[in-house]
Design goal:
By secondary structure, this protein is α/β, with parallel strands linked by helices. 36% of the residues lie in helices and 20% in strands. The relative contact order is 0.10.
């Protein structure tokens, strides 16, 4: 679907788990001269990817949905990607929805007769929402919702921000400088739930750590903000990767949003190539692109981990690393927000071992020091 913006129309993303209601609403909105339906999604996780891809002006979202309810998703969305959102529900109260940061609220129509009036009013609310500054909700804790359909919601107890890493011992740290000078490279890939998971792992790394490459599925701008936040809280120097950046001990490079990142090597050592390109495994940046380049360039001197995330990006790349002699770790199911990418890697036989989030950082340090 094209994401080119029509400046004369407000672009909306419709999120509802009911295929019938979603299609009916899309049809009604598409008939309005000043509204363009940019896309649709059946749940919060699909909506997150569509928001990154389509950049809508306004979000129309149901409250009651599988995997994650609309209010929980909205609370997290407003912290990371403020967007005008009109919530629709037959059960939730207007007060609870507006407290979460919604621009407006409408009750779901109970009959076809009510739908015509409903869609007309909704069209007006969409135009108004797009014309006003985004109103964000005050930060507060969100009640944990139950795991549904095997997918852990982002604010569950598996969320990485609530996990304290097991730090490497002094003896495990002592050998890291030598390993870095011998050309060891660390590669990490993650998606849904990965921002907190990666922070947990990178915080466990000392400043003597061999260079680290990271791909986290995030849109442009957010990767720079994320790397700057990690740089302030981690012993390593963390920065958004730029084309030609040279790797060195104590440096962590995070792939920029909308840019693939590959590991390269010349007579002076390792560096990264960053470039815009077609999506690979559904993403740009792609974990598969980065892992594959690490396998080709560093071979058995590489070590990596694939972490929480939806889909399969990174699974084939990690398998290639494994087959080239690298040591590879998959995050275990119990500590994942979404056990998707690590599961696909494990099914391919790409993981040397699986570890809990709390143990990934220390395991990487121990393997680098002791070998594999």
């Amino acid at each position: 679907m094209s994401i080119k913006k029509n400046k004369l129309k407000v672009r909306v993303l419709v999120v509802d788990d009911s295929a019938l209601f979603r299609s009916t609403l899309v049809q009604a909105l598409s008939s309005m001269s000043n509204i363009e339906v940019a896309g649709e999604a059946a749940d919060a996780f699909e909506a997150r990817d569509k928001i990154n891809e389509l950049k809508p002006d306004v979000l129309i979202m149901d409250v009651v949905m599988p995997k994650m309810d609309g209010i929980t998703f909205l609370n997290q969305l407003m912290e990371q990607y403020p967007l005008p959102c009109i919530m629709i529900s037959g059960t939730a109260s207007e007060e609870s929805v507006l407290e979460a940061g919604a621009a407006d609220f409408m009750k779901k129509p109970r009959s076809p007769a009510e739908f015509k009036t409903f869609s007309t009013i909704l069209g007006t609310k969409i135009i108004l929402a797009a014309s006003k500054p985004v109103r964000t909700a005050p930060k507060k804790s969100v009640n944990t919702i139950e795991k549904i359909d095997g997918v852990m919601p982002l604010n569950s107890t598996a969320k990485a921000g609530k996990v304290a890493p097991n730090l490497p011992s002094a003896s495990e740290i002592s050998g890291l400088s030598k390993a870095a000078n011998e050309g060891i490279v660390v590669a990490l890939g993650a998606s849904t739930g990965g921002t907190d998971a990666l922070e947990c792992v990178i915080k466990s790394f000392p400043k003597t750590m061999p260079p680290v490459l990271v791909v986290q599925h995030m849109p442009p701008v957010f990767t720079k903000m994320y790397s700057e936040r990690l740089d302030k809280s981690c012993a390593m120097t963390v920065k958004e990767a730029e084309n030609g950046d040279r790797l060195r001990p104590g440096l962590c490079l995070i792939a920029a949003g909308a840019y693939h990142m590959e590991l390269k090597k010349d007579t002076q050592g390792y560096y990264v190539k960053c470039y815009q390109g077609e999506k690979v495994s559904g993403h740009c940046p792609s974990v598969d692109v980065m892992f594959t380049s690490v396998a080709d360039t560093a071979g058995k001197k590489a070590i990596g981990a694939i972490m929480t995330g939806m889909g399969a990006d990174g699974a084939k790349g990690l398998l290639k690393m494994h087959n080239k002699g690298a040591y590879t770790i998959g995050q275990d199911k119990e500590s994942c927000v979404v056990y998707g990418m690590p599961m696909e890697a494990y099914k391919l036989g790409a993981c040397s071992e699986q570890q809990s989030l709390a143990n990934i950082g220390r395991t990487l340090c121990r393997r680098i020091t002791e070998g594999w």
